[in-house]
Each structure stands twice: as structure tokens, then as C-alpha cells.
């Protein structure tokens, strides 16, 4: 028995005749299918190829993989193929979106960092602009001050010379070893050559000019409690040797020292030494002792020996050498030198007192000849006057003239107002010797007053600012 399906399989029917319009529609459908496959391949294989190349590659692929079929056997892609191609495209797009998101995040962070740097640069530029404005203002202010100082100096006929240190400061390419080598300049970095030479004639000439400017030969008013007096300008002792100088009674300062070279260089340039400006802001007189032909020799610190001599002779030679080359000579003042150190006149109580003439009259006899020996006793106040003539304690120093018992000797003492009669006795005993007979101290002028209380100060006794005293032998007690 046969089934209908077998009958259909066995008997093949002939196709119905088709019209020309249906064939055209079939050909158009076949072409549209081919175009769809070509577009699908272009999506699967994104290559820059023209439509003809894609079609040729599609035909080549078909010829290699699939057997040739007639146009009637070409079928469209299945749903699975379409879904697979769509999934592949979605996967590619997701990967692309992820990479682009990472790239965008990275660029966002980089933009944030650059913006922060830009903000810092803007802040730095603003600060630099403000600093530049401040520097310009300060420079303008300093230039104005310099101009005012130069104008002030020109009013007094002076100009600013400078030391020449900053002339080559901006030239950084030049070697600076020559200016920094030890001993080549006035001081490290200076502009003076190593071989420092002293022009003694120029130094002495400039010192004379400076003394004239400082008021040489003039006097000044010094005030003290209860009055005022005229005093001479203080002078600085300066001794010039071949190898150095001595100032303020020592110590010796050789010309190889930078500080000494600066001192001498200021004098040779005609300026007041910078070293003394703090101590004497208004200038000071110089009393120069020119010993340019002599060489200062320091005392040998050790113990000397002589061949066949004794220690006493060695000490005597040392004393002679120290006396010859001492920087603090112990010279006795003559009467005229002592009078020159005193003020010529003193105004006290509305009266003008001629100090020099009155003292000269008392120191000399009626014929004008000197009748006594004048001795200056070393005291603490006298040392202060030598070392610090401008200190405040100078106004509280009293000048005492003490005449001995026989009238042949006169002692000059400088003492503070706060010192006592006991200090005066100790000074006199140390100078005359403590083995002398006892004596009394009496005021010479006005009412003769005995100063027997050793605890009273000079101010309490009225022995200020100067006084004349007499020494009288103390009478011996009468024994019964």
C-alpha cells in the first residue's frame, strides 16, 4: 500500500509557467538579498572597501566554501546568524564604550591637574608682580635717600667716594680669587694691593687739616654742678713708627694688621678714621709723635742672661730698654706744659677767674723764676682721663694742687668728687713715701680749714671742681 506522501515523492510535477513580471520580481528579490549579505559582511569585516570589492570577496568566499548553486537555490541568512552578528557588534561597541570611558576619566584627571598647576602659576605670577612692585618702590626710596645725602654733602663741599668694593659685584664671570687671597688687600675682599706703604708726609698733612677742622686751639664749655668752665679739646696721642703705630698709650699695632691699614688709609685719604667715629662722633684732635725713622721693638717676654753678669744687671738693662722703647713714657710735665693743659679762664658765680695767670703767680716767685718742682701724681681719675676722655665721669673730676710743707714741691692730683680725704692721703704717701712725719691738710684760700676727717668726700669738703691745699707738719703733743 502506498501513502499519499510516497506518491508525492515519486511523482514530480512540472512547474507552472511563470510570467515575465514574476521573473523580474524574483531577480529583484535575489539582488536585494545579495546586497543585504554584502552589507552584513561589511559590518562583520569593517574594511575600507568599495561595494564591488565586497561583492567580489563575497563571491570568492562563496565559491571556496559553498558549492555553486543556481540563482534559484540562494537562501537568506537565518535568525541565528543575524543574532550572532548583532551580538558581536554589541560586544565590540561595549568594549569601545569602556575604553572611551577610561580614556575620558584619564583625561579628566589630567585636566584637573593642569588646572591646579595653572592656578599655582597664576598665583606665583601675581606674587612676582607684587614683589617687583615692592622692589621698585624700595629702589626708588633708596635712590631718593642717596640723592638727599649727596645733596647734603654738596652743601658742605664734600662728595661720597666709597671704598670701591661693589664696583665689580655684577661681573660674575670674572675670577675673584685675587681679591680673596689672604694678605692681598686692606681686608678680605678689599681693593688695596698687598704691598701697603705709608706716606708719612701725607698722613701728617691730613692730620693737621683734620685738627683745624676739629677746632685746634679752641676751648669748649664744660658744665659741672654749680657752674661751668672752659676746657680744651681732648687730644689723642698717636706715635708713628717705621713698622707700626701706637695710639692711646698702647698697645703697639703693626701696619700688617687690617685694622691698622684701614686707620692709616683713612688718614691718607683725608678722612677722619672710621675706627674713632663711634667714640668721637664730633671729631678729635691728634697729637702726633713722628718717629718714622725708629722701629718699635717689643720687650722680650723671657728671662735674659748675660755672660759674666748678674741678674741685677739684666734687670737694669731691661728697665733701660723698656724706658727707651716704652709706648707709655712717664714724662714729667714742666710748669708751662701743665699750665697749657688748664683752661685759661673759668666763669664761676658770674665772675671770670684767670686760672693760668693765678696759678703761674703762685708757682713762680716775684721775679718770675720757678721756685718749686711740679709733680703729677698718678690717680684713678687721671687714668680715666687718658683712656676715656669723653665719658660722663670726666665732669665729676676735681683738680687739686697740693704744696708740700717746705713749699719747694707742688703735687697735682686728679680725683673724683666721690673720693675721700683718706684717698688723698694715700696718694700723697705713695708718691712721697709713707715714712714721713705726720701732716695736716689745710685749704690754701679763703678760710684755712683743716681736713682731718678721712671719711669725708671732696664734694662734702668743697674741694670741687678745683682747689689748692697746703701740707703742714702736725704739732707733736707736749709731754709733761
Automatic annotation (TrEMBL):
Residues of the SEP domain: 233-297
GO cellular component term, pick one: cytoskeleton
UniProt entry keywords in alphabetical sequence: Coiled coil, Cytoplasm, Cytoskeleton
Annotated Basic and acidic residues bias: 22-33
Residue ranges constituting the UBX domain according to the UniProt record: 393-471
Superkingdom assignment: Eukaryota
Location(s) in or outside the cell: Cytoplasm, Cytoskeleton
Chief localisation class: cytoplasm
Region (Disordered): 1-38, 163-188
GO biological process: proteasome-mediated ubiquitin-dependent protein catabolic process
Pfam families the UniProt entry points to: SEP, UBX
Ranges for domain Ubiquitin-like: 398-471
Coiled coil: 104-131
Compositional bias (Acidic residues): 163-174
GO molecular function annotations of the record: ubiquitin binding
InterPro entries hit by this protein: NSFL1C_SEP_dom_sf, SEP_domain, Ubiquitin-like_dom, Ubiquitin-like_domsf, UBX_dom
Quaternary structure annotation from Swiss-Prot or TrEMBL: Interacts with GNA12, GNA13, RND1, RND2 and RND3.
Protein function: May be involved in the reorganization of actin cytoskeleton mediated by RND1, RND2 and RND3. Promotes RHOA activation mediated by GNA12 and GNA13.
Name the UniProt record assigns to this protein: UBX domain-containing protein 11
Organism: Ameiurus melas (Black bullhead)
Native organism taxonomy: Eukaryota, Metazoa, Chordata, Craniata, Vertebrata
Amino acid at each position: 500500500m502506498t501513502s499519499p506522501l510516497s506518491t508525492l515523492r515519486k511523482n514530480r510535477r512540472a512547474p507552472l509557467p511563470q510570467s515575465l513580471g514574476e521573473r523580474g520580481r524574483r531577480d529583484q528579490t535575489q539582488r536585494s538579498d545579495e546586497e543585504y549579505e554584502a552589507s552584513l559582511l561589511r559590518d562583520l569585516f569593517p574594511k575600507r572597501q568599495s561595494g564591488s570589492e565586497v561583492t567580489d570577496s563575497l563571491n570568492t568566499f562563496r565559491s571556496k566554501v559553498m558549492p555553486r548553486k543556481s540563482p534559484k537555490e540562494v537562501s537568506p541568512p537565518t535568525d541565528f546568524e543575524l543574532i550572532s552578528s548583532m551580538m558581536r557588534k554589541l560586544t565590540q561597541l561595549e568594549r569601545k564604550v569602556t575604553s572611551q570611558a577610561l580614556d575620558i576619566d584619564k583625561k579628566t584627571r589630567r585636566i584637573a591637574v593642569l588646572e591646579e598647576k595653572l592656578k599655582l602659576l597664576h598665583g606665583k605670577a601675581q606674587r612676582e608682580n607684587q614683589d617687583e612692585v615692592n622692589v621698585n618702590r624700595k629702589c626708588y626710596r633708596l635712590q631718593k635717600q642717596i640723592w638727599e645725602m649727596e645733596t647734603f654733602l654738596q652743601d658742605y663741599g664734600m662728595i661720597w667716594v666709597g671704598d670701591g668694593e661693589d664696583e665689580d659685584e655684577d661681573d660674575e664671570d670674572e675670577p675673584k680669587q685675587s681679591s680673596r687671597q689672604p694678605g692681598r688687600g686692606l681686608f678680605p675682599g678689599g681693593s688695596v694691593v698687598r704691598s701697603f706703604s705709608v706716606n708719612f708726609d701725607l698722613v701728617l698733612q691730613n692730620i693737621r687739616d683734620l685738627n683745624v677742622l676739629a677746632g685746634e686751639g679752641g676751648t669748649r664749655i664744660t658744665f659741672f654742678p654749680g657752674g661751668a668752665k672752659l676746657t680744651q679739646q681732648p687730644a689723642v696721642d698717636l706715635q708713628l713708627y717705621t713698622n707700626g703705630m701706637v695710639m692711646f698709650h698702647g698697645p703697639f699695632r703693626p701696619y700688617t694688621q687690617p685694622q691698622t691699614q684701614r686707620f692709616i688709609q683713612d688718614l691718607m685719604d683725608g678722612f677722619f678714621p672710621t675706627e674713632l667715629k663711634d667714640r668721637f662722633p664730633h671729631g678729635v684732635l691728634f697729637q702726633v709723635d713722628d718717629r718714622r725713622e725708629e722701629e718699635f721693638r717689643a720687650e722680650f717676654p723671657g728671662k735674659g742672661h748675660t755672660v759674666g753678669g748678674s741678674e741685677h744687671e739684666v734687670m737694669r738693662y731691661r728697665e733701660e730698654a723698656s724706658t727707651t722703647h716704652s709706648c707709655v713714657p712717664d714724662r714729667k710735665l714742666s710748669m708751662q706744659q701743665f699750665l697749657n693743659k688748664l683752661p685759661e679762664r673759668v666763669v664761676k658765680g658770674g665772675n671770670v677767674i684767670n686760672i693760668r695767670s693765678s696759678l703761674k703767680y703762685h708757682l713762680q716767685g716775684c721775679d718770675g723764676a720757678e721756685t718749686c718742682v711740679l709733680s703729677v701724681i698718678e690717680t684713678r681719675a687721671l687714668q680715666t682721663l687718658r683712656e676715656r676722655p669723653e665719658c660722663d665721669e670726666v665732669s665729676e673730676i676735681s683738680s687739686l694742687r697740693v704744696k708740700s710743707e717746705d713749699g719747694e714741691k707742688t703735687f697735682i692730683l686728679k680725683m673724683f668728687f666721690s673720693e675721700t680725704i683718706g684717698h688723698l692721703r694715700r696718694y700723697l704717701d705713695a708718691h712721697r713715701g709713707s715714712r714721713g712725719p705726720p701732716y695736716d691738710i689745710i685749704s690754701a684760700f679763703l678760710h684755712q680749714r683743716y681736713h682731718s676727717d678721712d671719711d669725708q668726700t671732696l664734694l662734702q669738703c668743697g674741694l670741687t671742681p678745683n682747689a689748692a691745699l697746703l701740707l703742714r707738719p702736725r704739732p707733736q703733743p707736749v709731754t709733761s
